[in-house]
Specification:
alpha/beta; Rossmann fold; 17 helices
Length: 450
């Protein structure tokens, strides 16, 4: 790697209060053309590794969070329900595919994510995966080479960089969004669950009392507070997120009109919030919940930690309680965590209750583990399986080589048709009432919206 002392000093002279180099469009172009992209990239990587400026998290003020939450509260869940989507699943050989067992699709916007991202953004962006490091980890501890690998997109189209007729790079800048966009492509980003999806599930099931056996990043807790449900029971072994959930309860209660502190019972392993709504969260894995005291649940909805995928709280206190650390073989994860927790969740339901599990089959080192089929085929749960709900997610980019005519040339029509389809993750649903209908019938859908 080749860096420039002069350019290094220029970066240092243009830092913000967090020590982050900020270079405006015209100046960025001049520096790129003067030193060349590679020297600029090398020098920037060297600077970040040496100076360690604060990672540029997306700026979310408490007012942004509050405004977003209020919008989520008033959003009608029926606007997100679709029953005639042309669906594409990750795998085309599920035993219970959407084509024959699909109930409908939740096409929920991510515009409400700020309402929960405000609380856990930093923790989520410091959560890596097996073999892939998280953005904040690379930024704070990575070598210049590690950081260099992430910076390439700063000189590409996502940062408004292009080439003029002579092949010179023009445009671009260095701002917080530039860094965030580059590191999103160069590292592993733990997924944020859409709070609106959680709200939809709770409203679709007419739930009052809900159970979430994997609180995640507080996104389903946010959806609960924005829904008509009144009681939430959840768990998470991570002590860091456990504290953030308490902050969520305080702030959401304040927005809902409760100015007093709603936390009535707080210790290191369990807290309860009692205000306009009731929340009980345990700091433990779902396999260790006090199941004998959990009953009469209307909706048990969760997205369990997939096997061998995300390393929550790696290196932190109580890491040993995380499912990825505790169950490091698939059969152990399935037989001691995934299936028993799903069964216990179902047993906790009332006579009309619904269990909804968002999971698809993980692929680890080229091997696919059939978590979805194993859930639906479980000897205890299978008689109560009512179908799957599709949760729309962003279509994954595909290379032009995927769309060819018989002579091997690019077929734009194929690509356009592909992009029109609705790519989903699966939510596998079970109910104690075989007559449960989660989606309104097509003939009544318009009236249901109004």
């Amino acid at each position: 790697m080749q860096s420039s002392n002069e350019l290094y000093q220029t970066l240092k002279d243009h830092t913000n209060s967090d020590g982050l180099p900020i270079i405006q469009k015209g100046h960025f172009q001049i520096l790129t053309q003067k030193y060349g992209k590679e020297v600029f990239r090398d020098t920037l990587a060297t600077f970040i590794a040496a100076e360690r400026p604060t990672f540029p998290l997306k700026h979310i003020s408490i007012y942004d969070m509050e405004d977003c939450f209020k919008q989520l509260r008033t959003e009608k869940h029926t606007k997100s329900l679709i029953t005639d989507a042309d669906v594409m699943e990750k795998f085309d050989d599920y035993q219970y595919p959407y084509s024959t067992h699909g109930l409908g699709v939740i096409d929920a916007s991510n515009k409400f994510n700020t309402a929960s991202n405000y609380f856990c953004q930093d923790l989520r962006l410091n959560c890596g995966s097996y073999g892939f490091r998280a953005p904040i980890d690379v930024w704070n501890t990575g070598t210049p080479k590690d950081i260099w690998k992430c910076l390439g997109p700063i000189w590409r189209g996502i940062n408004n960089v292009s080439k003029d007729k002579d092949g010179n790079l023009i445009g671009g800048n260095l701002c917080q969004d530039s860094y965030i966009s580059a590191f999103r492509l160069g590292t592993y980003i733990a997924t944020q669950f859409k709070p609106l999806v959680a709200k939809c599930i709770y409203e679709m099931t007419n739930a009052s009392k809900v159970l979430d056996t994997s609180c995640g990043w507080g996104d389903r807790l946010c959806g609960f507070f924005a829904s008509n449900a009144s009681e939430y029971i959840g768990c998470d072994p991570n002590p860091n997120t456990y504290e953030r959930y308490q902050q969520e309860c305080i702030e959401y209660e304040r927005i809902l009109g409760n100015e007093s502190n709603p936390l009535v019972q707080v210790n290191s392993n369990r807290f309860q919030s009692q205000g306009t709504k009731k929340v009980t969260i345990y700091r433990c894995g779902a396999e260790d919940l006090p199941w004998e005291s959990i009953s009469n649940i209307d909706c048990a909805f969760t997205s369990p930690p997939y096997f061998s995928t995300e390393e929550y709280n790696k290196g932190g206190e109580h890491q040993e309680d995380q499912s990825w650390s505790k169950f490091n073989e698939y059969e152990s994860w399935r037989d001691n965590f995934y299936i028993p927790v799903s069964r216990n969740s179902f047993k906790s339901l009332n006579e009309n209750g619904v269990l909804a599990v968002n999971i698809f089959d993980p692929q680890i080192k080229g091997k696919r583990y059939r978590s979805s089929d194993e859930l639906c085929n479980d000897v205890f749960l299978n008689p109560y399986f009512i179908g799957q709900v599709g949760m729309r997610i962003m279509q994954r980019p595909q290379g032009k080589s995927k769309f060819k005519t018989e002579d091997g040339s690019f077929d734009k029509r194929q690509m356009d048709e592909f992009m029109k389809r609705t790519f989903i993750e699966n939510i596998w649903c079970f109910s104690k009432n075989s007559e449960t209908e989660l989606f309104p019938k097509p003939s009544t859908l318009d009236a249901f919206w109004n």
